[in-house]
Input
Amino acid sequence: MKIRFISALSDPYYDYVRDGKKTWEIRLKKGGWENVTPGDAVLLFRHGGRGEFIVVEIIERREFKGIAEALESVGVQNAIPQAQSVSEALSEYRRFYSEEKERKLGVVALRVRTVTEYDGEIHKDLLLKYLPHLKDECSK
Output
């Protein structure tokens, strides 16, 4: 399995994905997420963490015009485990995405399966791109 993409997950979502409680990742179609397809592996790191990585396999991909539509399709708690309703989950997404960007870009919902916690090496150029706080360590 080849890692095709690297991204961050904020708390508590990193733990939810790692533990299998969050089985759908909903993102705007930008920043590389628009190119992720079933069979791809994605390396996720804990936002603000250090050295915590998990690998997920993309099992299924669905495209939507908006987040609410995606939540209704995949199930609220499969995307935001602590939410009890679409409106509650949508308010959580608004911390990250504006309605304007959502309408402009569209949404991709990706069903994920945690494969492993990552214990291998990552090429230093990828680390420098996605984890700039490791710059000093990678240049050694």
